Predict the structure.
Amino acid sequence: MSDLFSVRVQVRSYELDLNGHVNHAVYHAYGEHGRSELLAAAGCSMGRMLEHGVGIVLLETHVRFLRELRFADEVDVDARPSFGEGRTFRIDHTLTRGDGVVAAEIGCTMGLLDSAARRLLPDPAGRLRAMATDPAVLGL
Protein backbone atom coordinates (compact mmCIF):
# COMPACT_ATOMS: atom_id res chain seq x y z
CA MET A 1 0.00 0.00 0.00
CA SER A 2 1.70 3.18 -1.16
CA ASP A 3 -0.42 5.72 0.75
CA LEU A 4 -1.66 5.52 4.30
CA PHE A 5 -5.44 5.11 4.32
CA SER A 6 -7.18 7.59 6.60
CA VAL A 7 -10.67 8.92 7.19
CA ARG A 8 -11.61 12.08 9.09
CA VAL A 9 -14.34 12.27 11.71
CA GLN A 10 -15.53 15.19 13.79
CA VAL A 11 -16.40 14.73 17.46
CA ARG A 12 -20.13 15.22 18.05
CA SER A 13 -21.72 16.45 21.26
CA TYR A 14 -23.51 13.19 22.02
CA GLU A 15 -20.17 11.32 22.04
CA LEU A 16 -18.98 13.17 25.16
CA ASP A 17 -18.99 11.98 28.74
CA LEU A 18 -19.61 14.08 31.85
CA ASN A 19 -16.00 15.28 31.79
CA GLY A 20 -16.49 16.84 28.37
CA HIS A 21 -14.28 14.46 26.46
CA VAL A 22 -15.08 11.55 24.16
CA ASN A 23 -16.45 8.49 25.94
CA HIS A 24 -14.07 5.53 25.84
CA ALA A 25 -16.48 3.34 23.83
CA VAL A 26 -16.63 5.90 21.03
CA TYR A 27 -12.95 5.32 20.25
CA HIS A 28 -13.93 1.78 19.26
CA ALA A 29 -16.64 3.19 16.98
CA TYR A 30 -14.07 5.46 15.32
CA GLY A 31 -11.86 2.42 14.70
CA GLU A 32 -14.81 0.49 13.28
CA HIS A 33 -15.58 3.39 10.96
CA GLY A 34 -11.96 3.46 9.77
CA ARG A 35 -11.99 -0.30 9.11
CA SER A 36 -15.31 -0.17 7.26
CA GLU A 37 -14.14 2.72 5.06
CA LEU A 38 -10.84 0.96 4.34
CA LEU A 39 -12.63 -2.22 3.26
CA ALA A 40 -15.15 -0.27 1.17
CA ALA A 41 -12.34 1.65 -0.57
CA ALA A 42 -10.76 -1.70 -1.47
CA GLY A 43 -14.07 -2.92 -2.91
CA CYS A 44 -14.90 -5.18 0.03
CA SER A 45 -18.01 -3.40 1.27
CA MET A 46 -20.41 -5.14 3.61
CA GLY A 47 -22.75 -5.83 0.69
CA ARG A 48 -19.98 -7.35 -1.40
CA MET A 49 -18.92 -9.57 1.49
CA LEU A 50 -22.51 -10.74 1.94
CA GLU A 51 -22.66 -11.58 -1.78
CA HIS A 52 -19.58 -13.78 -1.26
CA GLY A 53 -21.02 -15.43 1.86
CA VAL A 54 -18.47 -13.98 4.26
CA GLY A 55 -18.47 -11.52 7.10
CA ILE A 56 -15.69 -9.82 8.97
CA VAL A 57 -15.45 -10.45 12.69
CA LEU A 58 -13.57 -8.61 15.39
CA LEU A 59 -11.81 -11.14 17.62
CA GLU A 60 -9.81 -8.82 19.84
CA THR A 61 -9.34 -5.09 20.25
CA HIS A 62 -7.15 -2.94 22.44
CA VAL A 63 -7.17 0.85 22.82
CA ARG A 64 -4.35 2.91 24.27
CA PHE A 65 -5.68 6.33 25.27
CA LEU A 66 -3.02 9.02 24.99
CA ARG A 67 -4.77 12.43 24.82
CA GLU A 68 -8.36 13.49 25.16
CA LEU A 69 -10.69 14.26 22.31
CA ARG A 70 -13.21 17.06 22.83
CA PHE A 71 -16.28 18.45 21.09
CA ALA A 72 -15.71 19.53 17.47
CA ASP A 73 -12.17 18.11 17.32
CA GLU A 74 -11.36 16.78 13.89
CA VAL A 75 -9.79 13.34 14.11
CA ASP A 76 -7.93 11.43 11.41
CA VAL A 77 -8.35 7.68 11.82
CA ASP A 78 -5.82 5.71 9.81
CA ALA A 79 -6.20 2.01 9.05
CA ARG A 80 -3.17 -0.22 8.55
CA PRO A 81 -3.97 -3.83 7.66
CA SER A 82 -1.37 -6.57 8.03
CA PHE A 83 -1.62 -10.19 7.05
CA GLY A 84 0.36 -13.20 8.15
CA GLU A 85 -0.38 -16.89 8.03
CA GLY A 86 -3.42 -18.51 9.52
CA ARG A 87 -7.03 -17.49 9.89
CA THR A 88 -6.58 -14.03 11.41
CA PHE A 89 -5.20 -10.65 10.39
CA ARG A 90 -4.70 -7.27 12.02
CA ILE A 91 -5.88 -3.77 11.40
CA ASP A 92 -4.18 -1.09 13.48
CA HIS A 93 -5.25 2.51 13.84
CA THR A 94 -3.78 5.78 15.05
CA LEU A 95 -6.28 8.50 15.94
CA THR A 96 -4.68 11.90 15.38
CA ARG A 97 -6.29 15.22 16.24
CA GLY A 98 -6.28 17.99 13.66
CA ASP A 99 -3.45 19.67 15.56
CA GLY A 100 -1.22 16.63 14.96
CA VAL A 101 -1.45 15.22 18.47
CA VAL A 102 -1.92 11.46 18.66
CA ALA A 103 -4.99 10.82 20.82
CA ALA A 104 -5.16 7.02 20.75
CA GLU A 105 -3.84 3.83 19.21
CA ILE A 106 -6.14 0.89 18.47
CA GLY A 107 -5.06 -2.64 17.60
CA CYS A 108 -7.54 -5.21 16.29
CA THR A 109 -7.35 -8.88 15.45
CA MET A 110 -9.86 -9.80 12.77
CA GLY A 111 -11.08 -12.83 10.88
CA LEU A 112 -13.30 -13.67 7.94
CA LEU A 113 -16.35 -15.72 8.85
CA ASP A 114 -18.02 -18.22 6.54
CA SER A 115 -21.60 -17.01 6.95
CA ALA A 116 -23.15 -20.46 6.42
CA ALA A 117 -20.73 -22.64 8.40
CA ARG A 118 -20.12 -19.97 11.10
CA ARG A 119 -16.39 -20.75 11.08
CA LEU A 120 -13.31 -18.65 10.40
CA LEU A 121 -12.02 -19.01 6.87
CA PRO A 122 -8.39 -19.79 6.09
CA ASP A 123 -6.22 -17.37 4.11
CA PRO A 124 -8.08 -14.09 4.73
CA ALA A 125 -5.50 -12.20 2.63
CA GLY A 126 -6.15 -14.40 -0.39
CA ARG A 127 -9.91 -14.22 0.03
CA LEU A 128 -9.92 -10.43 0.39
CA ARG A 129 -7.54 -10.09 -2.59
CA ALA A 130 -9.92 -12.16 -4.73
CA MET A 131 -12.97 -10.20 -3.58
CA ALA A 132 -11.46 -6.69 -3.75
CA THR A 133 -11.75 -4.42 -6.74
CA ASP A 134 -8.63 -2.54 -5.52
CA PRO A 135 -6.59 -4.93 -3.34
CA ALA A 136 -3.69 -2.45 -3.19
CA VAL A 137 -5.73 -0.42 -0.68
CA LEU A 138 -5.30 -3.41 1.66
CA GLY A 139 -1.63 -3.77 0.82
CA LEU A 140 -2.38 -6.94 -1.19
